[in-house]
Specification:
mainly beta; Immunoglobulin-like; 5-stranded antiparallel β-sheet; 4-stranded antiparallel β-sheet; 43 strands; about 0% helix
C-alpha cells in the first residue's frame, strides 16, 4: 500500500480543535493518526473490518475479513490503541480445525464480556454456518459447542452466516445464505438457531436440524437479522439478486415457521425501489428493528440502465408494509433515497443503527466527497428527514487517506462516539484493502435500554408493578414514581438494574400503601450510570372495587403506537376493535386478561388521520374510548 504524508494528520488536529458532531474524534489514537487507525499487517494482504461491537467499558471489538481465512478479531481501547490483553497484541486468529478455512461476518459482546462471532468454516467439503464463543481474553470458551465452536450444515453446498442476534432466553439466531446446489452460485435465505451452549436447537426451531431455508425469488441473500420483543425473528436482505433485485424482509415465528398471516404477503415483505424505472438493482445490506417494532433496511440502488448507486433506506410497519410516516422526502412511500450530489455520485450503505432518541444513523461510502471514495455517515430524524444538527446538514464524510479509496462496512455507538470500521485501498478499486477503524463525534447515545413490558396488578391492599427489559447498557437503576393526579410525581422506591445485558431481565416492586380513594399513576424513571434518564409509559390503577373503571388510551393524538390500559374486571381473551366514525372496523387485536388491569399496545401507524373509537370486549362486557390519529 502507498505511504501517506502527515498533512492529513495535521488537518485532523485542526479539526479536533474545532470539534463538532459528525467530525472525526481526535482523542481516538491521539498519538498516532488522531481520529482513526489503519493496520496494514493484519494478514499482510486484503483486510477490512466487517462487523463491530463494544464492551460495556467502551473497548471496541471488530470482526475482520482477512486473506489468511481465519476468524480474525481485533480489540481497541477507547484511546484507539490495540488492547494487549486480547489475543496476541490485540489480535485473535482462530480456526475450527488446523487446516480449515474460516471467515467472520458478525460479532456480539455479551453482558459477561464473552464474545460471539458468526461466519463460516470450511472443512473437507463445503462452507458451513459457524459460531465461535471467546472468553474475554480472546481464547475459545471450552463450555461452548466443541472447543468453543458451534457448527450447523445447512445444505450440501456452501452456507455462510452473515448476521447474529441473541434471544431473551440466550439462544443464538444466525442468518445468512445457503447455496441451492454445489457450484450454482445461487442462494436462499437461511436461518439457524443454537442453544446457549452451542448445540443446534433441533427440537425447537425448524422442521429438522435447527435450521430453516427460504426460497423467495431466484437468488436470495440474507444479510441482517433482528429479534422482536415477542420473540419473532425478522431477516432482511435481497431477493432476486441477479435480476430485478429487491429489498426483502421475512418474519418467522419463534419455531422457525414463516409468519404468513401477520407480515407482508404470506410473511414476506418486498420493495422494488424503482429508481430509473422498473428493474432497478436494489441491494439491502443491513437490518435493525426499532423499539416500536418497525423494521429498517438499508443498502443501495442503481437504475435499470445501470449507472451510479444511491443510498436507500426503507422502513416497514409491524405489518410488513412500507411505512408512510417515513416520509422525510415528502412522498410517503416509506423509502428514503440519498445522493451526495450535486452530480451523479456513487454511494452505498452497509450498516444502520438507532440512537436512544430515535434518530437513525446509516453508514457507507461515497465518491462525492473528493477524488476518491470516502466514509459516509447519514443521520436521519425519525420521519426520515436528514438531521441538520448532525454536521449541519445530516451528512458527514471523511476522506481518510486522500490518495486511496476508503470503504465503510459497520458502525456501533458508544457514549458520544460513532465507531466506524472498513478498509482503505489504492484506486482503482481492485487493490487490496488495509484495515481501518475511525471514531466520529456524536451527541446521541446507543439505545441503553429496551423496556419490553410494564404492567401493574392490584393485590388486596397493595399494587405490584412488574416490568421486563430485553437489553440494557450501562443502566443504573429504576426509580418508581407515583402520582394521584397524573401531573405531580413523587419517588416511592427504587430497584437496581442489572446494568449490562442482552437477555431478558425481570423486575418487580410492591407499593404497600397506594391511594385507596384516588387514581394511582405509576411511571418508571430509568437512569443510566452517567445520570441520564428517560421515563416509561404511565400505568393507572384505582382502588374503588376495581383497578380502573375506564378504558384508557394515550397519547391522543397518536402517531404510531397507541398505549391502552384495560380496566380491571375483564377476565378472558379481550377483543380490541378500532372503528372509524362510521362504525367500520379498521383494525383488530386481542389481549389475554386475568381480570386485573392490563397494559397493552396497538400499532396504528397505517391508519389515516382522523378520529377513531377503540372498543374492548369480553363476553357481554365492553368499554369504549376515543382517540385521534395524526
Amino acid at each position: 500500500m502507498k505511504k501517506f504524508t502527515s498533512t492529513f494528520t495535521m488537518a485532523l488536529l485542526c479539526l479536533y480543535a474545532s470539534a463538532q458532531v459528525g467530525a472525526l474524534d481526535g482523542t481516538f489514537n491521539l498519538t498516532g493518526t488522531p481520529g482513526y487507525a489503519i493496520n496494514q499487517q493484519v494478514s499482510g494482504n486484503d483486510d477490512y473490518g466487517q462487523a463491530i461491537a463494544t464492551h460495556s467499558d467502551g473497548r471496541v471489538v471488530v470482526a475482520v475479513f482477512t486473506s489468511n481465512k481465519n476468524f480474525t478479531l481485533m480489540r481497541y481501547t477507547t484511546a484507539g490503541i490495540l488492547d494487549n490483553t486480547f489475543g496476541t497484541g490485540g489480535i485473535v486468529n482462530i480456526r475450527q480445525f488446523g487446516g480449515d478455512e474460516a471467515q467472520a461476518y458478525a460479532v456480539k459482546v455479551l453482558s459477561d464480556n464473552k464474545i460471539l462471532v458468526a461466519g463460516y468454516t470450511w472443512g473437507s467439503f463445503n462452507k458451513d454456518f459457524a459460531v465461535a464463543k471467546l472468553l474475554e481474553d480472546g481464547t475459545p470458551d471450552p463450555s461452548f459447542g466443541a472447543n468453543g465452536w458451534a457448527v450447523n450444515t445447512i445444505s450440501n453446498a456452501h452456507d455462510v452466516a452473515q448476521s447474529i442476534a441473541i434471544q431473551s432466553n440466550g439462544k443464538i439466531v444466525v442468518a445468512g445464505i445457503s447455496e441451492i446446489s454445489p457450484g450454482a452460485d445461487v442462494y436462499d435465505f437461511a436461518v439457524a438457531r443454537f442453544n446457549a451452549d452451542g448445540s443446534p436447537d433441533v427440537s425447537g426451531f425448524g422442521l429438522s436440524g435447527g435450521k430453516v431455508i427460504t426460497n423467495i425469488n431466484g437468488d436470495d441473500r440474507a444479510e441482517g437479522v433482528g429479534i422482536q420483543s415477542d420473540g419473532k425473528i425478522v431477516v432482511g436482505g435481497t431477493s432476486n439478486a441477479k435480476a430485478d433485485a429487491n429489498f426483502t424482509a421475512v418474519r418467522y415465528n419463534t419455531d422457525g415457521s414463516i409468519d404468513a398471516s401477520g407480515f407482508g404477503t404470506l410473511g414476506i415483505a418486498t420493495v422494488d425501489i424503482g429508481f430509473g424505472g422498473a428493474g432497478s438493482t436494489d441491494l439491502a445490506h443491513a437490518l435493525i428493528i426499532q423499539t416500536d417494532g418497525k423494521v429498517l433496511l438499508t443498502g443501495q440502488t442503481a437504475g435499470s440502465g445501470g449507472g451510479n448507486n444511491n443510498v436507500v433506506t426503507v422502513r416497514f410497519t409491524t405489518a410488513g408494509v412500507p411505512d408512510p410516516a417515513f416520509n422525510g422526502d415528502g412522498d410517503s412511500d416509506g423509502i428514503i433515497m440519498f445522493n451526495n450530489g450535486p452530480g451523479n455520485t456513487d454511494e452505498g450503505a452497509r450498516t444502520i443503527t438507532q440512537q436512544s432518541d430515535g434518530k437513525i444513523i446509516v453508514g457507507g461510502d461515497t465518491d462525492g466527497a473528493g477524488s476518491t471514495f470516502a466514509l459516509l455517515l447519514l443521520r436521519y430524524n425519525t420521519d426520515g428527514s436528514l438531521d441538520n444538527s448532525f454536521n449541519s446538514d445530516g451528512i458527514a464524510t471523511a476522506d481518510i487517506v486522500t490518495t486511496e479509496e476508503d470503504y465503510g462496512y459497520a458502525i456501533v455507538l458508544y457514549s458520544n462516539r460513532i465507531y466506524f470500521t472498513g478498509g482503505t485501498t489504492e484506486p482503482p478499486q481492485t487493490g487490496a484493502k488495509d484495515f481501518l477503524i475511525a471514531a466520529f463525534q456524536n451527541d446521541g447515545s446507543p439505545l441503553p435500554l429496551v423496556l419490553s413490558q410494564f404492567y401493574g396488578q392490584k393485590q388486596t391492599s397493595k399494587v405490584v408493578l412488574q416490568w421486563q427489559t430485553s437489553s440494557e447498557e450501562n443502566l443504573k437503576q429504576f426509580v418508581i414514581e407515583r402520582s394521584n393526579d397524573g401531573k405531580t410525581y413523587k419517588a416511592i422506591g427504587q430497584v437496581a438494574a442489572t446494568g449490562n445485558s442482552t437477555t431478558a431481565k425481570h423486575y418487580n416492586f410492591a407499593d404497600q400503601s397506594p391511594f385507596m380513594s384516588a387514581n394511582n399513576y405509576y411511571r418508571l424513571l430509568m437512569q443510566d450510570v452517567d445520570g441520564n434518564f428517560k421515563y416509561s409509559k404511565i400505568l393507572i390503577i384505582k382502588f374503588d372495587g376495581q383497578l380502573s373503571t375506564n378504558l384508557q388510551v394515550f397519547p391522543s393524538p397518536v402517531k404510531d403506537l397507541l398505549q391502552i390500559q384495560l380496566p380491571g374486571g375483564m377476565n378472558g381473551n379481550v377483543s380490541l376493535l378500532i372503528m372509524d366514525m362510521n362504525g367500520r372496523i379498521v383494525k383488530k387485536g386481542n389481549q389475554a386478561s386475568d381480570g386485573s388491569a392490563v397494559a397493552t399496545t396497538m400499532d396504528v401507524s397505517t391508519l389515516i388521520k382522523g378520529v377513531y373509537i377503540l372498543k374492548a370486549q369480553v363476553g357481554n362486557t365492553s368499554v369504549i374510548s376515543r382517540f385521534t390519529k395524526n
